[in-house]
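Lay summary. Proteins are chains of building blocks that fold into shapes, and those shapes determine what they do. In this project we predict the shape from the chain. Here is one chain we studied, written as its sequence of building blocks.
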Amino acid sequence: MSLEFKHIPVMSEDIDKILTPYKSGVYIDCTFGGGSITREILSKKNTKVISIDRDNFVETFSKEISKEYNNRFEFIIDRFSNLENILKERNLQKVPVAIIFDLGLSSFQIDNPERGFSYRQDGLLKMTMGKNNVTAFDIVNKLDLKDLRNIFNLFGEDKDSGLIAKLIVQKRQDKEINSTKELAEIILRAKRYKNSKYNKVDSCAKIFQAIRMIVNQELTELYEGLISAINNLSIDGKIVVITFHSLEDKIVKKVFDFFSNKKKGTSRYLPQNNENENFNILEIKDRKPTIASEKEIKNNNRARSAKLRCATKVQDHSFEFKRSYLNLEKYFQLEEVMHA
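And here is the predicted shape, written in a compact code that computers can read:
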């Protein structure tokens, strides 16, 4: 099995520019995937990488890197929301010179029908990234009409969310919905209510993405991982995040703004007694995200929705950050419906 498994990394050149010149020290790759970011960092002298991934499947790729960079590389199967404990166990708090998050699905996850992520291939309804207690089957077959509608509307932003939820509930009264093909057919059926000839299978993408985000609690994971990363970076350390969904990008932007000297747009969430210099923890050179180049998008269509944000830690202060400051509780609470 090849290391990349036909996976093309997104915005790797942009990450390289941010990290150059590479400092000596510990780097944290929070989303190991096929290992491309990890390998690039390890190719620089005096670097060490701790890579995290919740997917057992990628352990095979990590073993290939271990053979080449044994003493400078450690792979951990875990959620990156557990970053605080991972670093504490290794006495590496306040040590990392960079922490990187690439939140996109890997090609080997999307293209494998057994994983149940794709509406283009038939497979069991899973969509689990690893260390899951809930699957897509549970979401589709157990949540009530209201929760399904809200998930499809808020996470998928699909205009037919209500009808799709209604058709799912009707279908499962006869039999459980077990496969990606069955779910895709229900979505297309809803789309055909207005146009009987409608057959654009890509219209299933938003609903599938919404379900996947709930299954893996992706917004909660991101929020907890970001806060741990900011707390544990060394001074002058960099945090780099690539998102693929508007909600992910919104969380990164709000968290970065909160902890930086760019407080515009976040003052209404900032407690009055905390409006002081202690929250100038991060420095942001550009509040607008970097997007993939036209050339990269042409070569890798999955880069079209990628947005990269980065920040540098300039001060180290203890802080208390409440999730409610983000004003996104309705999203987080929906992620908790099946995980309570």
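What the prediction tells us: The beta strands are 25-29, 47-53, 73-77, 98-102, 238-243, 282-283, 290-291, 307-313.
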